[in-house]
């Protein structure tokens, strides 16, 4: 059985749109795409009057080298969100098929499914926010075509063991495509815990990567799907013809250059060090119930009064993520690891909040830990 047998048959059979840039095979005078013959003001030779390559060769090559895959196993688009949406549209028939997720987790998996009118099956993470492989597999019905795993998980930060990912990939063969979201994998203590090397072994495994986090390109929106070449070819059929703006491609190529990689890895090392410092400092603060272990560039923190802490930080101009709506996180905020100075500001404001709640006598406020 081919992994494509899991995809929608009408997508496999459709004739994809053929753009003018895809049909161009060389030449010096381009009159086939109804573009302007003149570049815009301030273009500086970038060529923004011309449509970009659907899959820019230089960027695809750089990303394939970075992630250790072949070019035909890689699709680059507008952040991981676009790849998630393409996967759902290609594999899930509206009103019939479904995805499976493990909440609390990244919300776009469910959003993309519901836009497609696909079902969303949920198997909650365990109390310690680890996943149970057997429970997940027991929940996979014939309707489930995509199983999403986020590692390190957002918003909790835990890493899914490689053995668990491989066990799922094996058990889901011919049943569902396993999609492993590795948006934060560069921040793990090991430095790299990707399962992309398993793609050749399991044709039903796909991996999401992004330049938004460790590579500091959130504003450029460059995300990558790594998967079996047949899956990549299928998604190209339904992808918009010109997904990547030229300035974004240029920014990505600079970030992936030799000195760009050194810069990114230096910053990742700072984040790891600051994460450890923040974990320890936060655990010592009154009003903090728990700091969840994290392998990402953020910490999920449980507070005695998360709503009050959120407002305290906001009043000081510090914006953190309120994750209390997520299952089993009703008392938590997610705090991104910033610069050392930004982290100091967070700690100082939390200390002020603790002193304020205790009052001038230092007596604990009602409901607060002594």
From TrEMBL:
| The protein's name in its UniProt record | Histidinol-phosphate aminotransferase
- Gene this protein is translated from: hisC
Residues of the Aminotransferase class I/classII large domain: 47-349
Q: Which residues carry this modification: N6-(pyridoxal phosphate)lysine?
A: 213
Q: Which reaction does it catalyse?
A: L-histidinol phosphate + 2-oxoglutarate = 3-(imidazol-4-yl)-2-oxopropyl phosphate + L-glutamate
Keywords assigned by UniProt, alphabetized: Amino-acid biosynthesis, Aminotransferase, Histidine biosynthesis, Pyridoxal phosphate, Transferase
* InterPro entries xref list: Aminotrans_II_pyridoxalP_BS, Aminotransferase_I/II_large, HisP_aminotrans, PyrdxlP-dep_Trfase, PyrdxlP-dep_Trfase_major, PyrdxlP-dep_Trfase_small
Quick one: which pathway? Amino-acid biosynthesis; L-histidine biosynthesis; L-histidine from 5-phospho-alpha-D-ribose 1-diphosphate: step 7/9
Q: What class of enzyme is it?
A: transferase
Q: Does the keyword Magnesium apply?
A: no
Q: Which cofactor does it need?
A: pyridoxal 5'-phosphate
Enzyme Commission designation: 2.6.1.9
The cross-references to Gene3D superfamilies, in alphabetical order and at most eight, read: Aspartate Aminotransferase, domain 1 (3.90.1150.10), Type I PLP-dependent aspartate aminotransferase-like (Major domain) (3.40.640.10)
Assembly mode:
Homodimer.
Q: Name one GO molecular function term.
A: transaminase activity
- Identify its protein family: Belongs to the class-II pyridoxal-phosphate-dependent aminotransferase family. Histidinol-phosphate aminotransferase subfamily.
């Amino acid at each position: 059985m081919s992994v494509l047998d899991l995809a929608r048959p009408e997508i496999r059979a459709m004739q994809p749109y053929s753009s003018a840039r895809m049909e161009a095979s060389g030449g010096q005078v381009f009159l086939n795409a109804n573009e302007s013959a003149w570049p815009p003001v301030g273009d500086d030779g970038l060529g923004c009057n011309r449509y970009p390559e659907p899959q820019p060769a230089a960027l695809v090559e750089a990303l394939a080298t970075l992630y250790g895959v072949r070019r035909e196993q890689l699709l680059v688009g507008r952040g991981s969100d676009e790849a998630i949406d393409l996967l759902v549209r290609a594999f899930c028939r509206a009103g019939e098929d479904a995805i499976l997720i493990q909440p609390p987790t990244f919300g776009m998996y469910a959003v993309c499914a519901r836009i497609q009118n696909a079902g969303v099956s949920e198997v909650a993470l365990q109390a310690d926010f680890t996943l149970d492989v057997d429970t997940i597999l027991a929940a996979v019905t014939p309707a489930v075509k995509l199983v999403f795993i986020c590692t390190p998980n957002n918003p909790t930060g835990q890493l899914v063991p490689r053995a668990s990912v491989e066990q799922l990939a094996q058990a889901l063969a011919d049943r569902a495509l396993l999609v492993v979201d590795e948006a934060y994998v560069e921040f793990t203590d090991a430095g790299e815990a990707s399962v992309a090397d398993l793609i050749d072994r399991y044709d039903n495994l796909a991996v999401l990567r992004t330049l938004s986090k460790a590579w500091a390109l959130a504003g450029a929106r460059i995300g990558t799907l790594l998967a079996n070449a047949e899956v990549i070819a299928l998604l190209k059929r339904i992808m918009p013809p010109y997904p990547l703006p030229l300035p974004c491609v240029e920014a990505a190529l600079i970030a992936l250059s030799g000195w760009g990689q050194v810069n990114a890895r230096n910053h990742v090392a700072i984040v790891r060090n600051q994460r450890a410092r923040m974990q320890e400092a936060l655990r010592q603060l009154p009003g903090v119930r728990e700091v969840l272990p994290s392998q990402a560039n953020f910490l999920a923190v449980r507070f005695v009064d998360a709503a009050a802490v959120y407002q305290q930080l906001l009043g000081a101009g510090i914006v953190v993520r309120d994750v209390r709506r997520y299952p089993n996180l009703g008392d938590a905020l997610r705090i991104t690891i910033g610069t050392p100075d930004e982290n100091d500001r967070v700690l100082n404001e939390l200390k002020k909040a603790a002193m304020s709640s205790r009052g001038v006598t230092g007596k604990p406020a009602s409901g607060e830990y002594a």
